[in-house]
Amino acid sequence: MHAAEFCHETPDGKIQCDLCSHFCRIMPGRSGICKVRSNIGGTLFSLNFGAALSPAAEPIENMPLYHFMPGSTTWSFGAPGCNFTCANCQEWQISRQAPDEPGIPFTPPEVVVENALRAGSRSISCTCTEPTVFAEYALEIMKLAKTAGLRCVWASNGYMSPNLLEAVGPWLDAVNIDLKSMDDAVYRRTCGARVEPVLGNLRRIAASGIHLEVTTLLIPGHSDSPGMLERLAGFIACDLGHEVPWHLVPFSPVISRHMRDTPATPPASLESAWTIGRKAGLWYIYCGKAHSDTVCPGCGHTAIERRPWSFGQPVVQLDDNGRCPSCHASLSIKK
Ligand code: SF4
Known about the structure:
Elements (H helix, E strand, L loop, with lengths): L1 E2 L3 E3 L5 E3 L7 E2 L10 E4 L2 E4 L6 E7 L13 E6 L13 H4 L13 H10 L4 E4 L8 H13 L3 E6 L5 H7 L5 E5 L5 H8 L4 H13 L2 E8 L7 H15 L5 E5 L16 H13 L5 E2 L7 E2 L6 E4 L9 E2 L19
Parallel strand pairs: 8-9, 9-10, 10-11, 11-12, 12-13, 13-14
Antiparallel strand pairs: 1-6, 2-3, 3-4, 5-6, 7-8, 15-16, 16-17
Helix pairs in contact: 2-3, 7-8
Bound molecules: iron/sulfur cluster.
């Protein structure tokens, strides 16, 4: 067990965890919503420090990040716990796993970095579950990774506290944030959270210079209404930037934690959302095979061609400055 940072005592004898926007006030003997931070005898402990899950070398495109070091390999991992309780969770078997479950080895931060280097990765990615709830572990790894010349990535639900974002920001090179809806009611109903902290963090990240991409899962009847998607695409375009890539992902009931009776997202919904994004002025919208390539918004040249993941790396054609090889316009790509 690792004593938690990002917390403080409250006058009523509890400890408030300051890692995420739930700001749980935890009494002795109890845990926070994420189940991986416990008040034991008046000290808050991070129970998942060192409990790296699902470590693997994989394409950075899987995060998904399409405009950050395209074609490179990243070393990805997660840790038990999540601060959301999404009914549609596709990683529920590990996000709900107890951190002290037998079979989860302790992996020191330096070993994570050594493994990443040995695999030829150019970055490490905190993903699979929610990096916010293993932030102390992630931070130690990120500091070592930077020293070793690796870049650092988070795939997150964006619910970290502003304080945590300020603390990890200097070590973060790229993030993909899941923006599930613009409706607070949907966040409350499906994830047990609120939308406003996510929107606030998205604005902070966009203003920080950290590379940002956004993902939205289209769940039929929950997050696929044209009106909501117009507001969401408008928010990305106006508040974050026209150049911020937007990934549209179909819902699948087969791998969902609950919502097994909700139908899969029909292809027509993805196509309709793509059109909504274009009307809002977004330059890069990705969904399915039909919209997986990076096309220059200036001249229409296909600069990055993405094959299905199982068939290997994307075909990247950029000039020496990471721009369109045809007209040399910026494609908002970080090499
Ligand atoms: S990380 Fe969030 S959910 Fe977990 S204890 Fe801290 S405030 Fe609560």
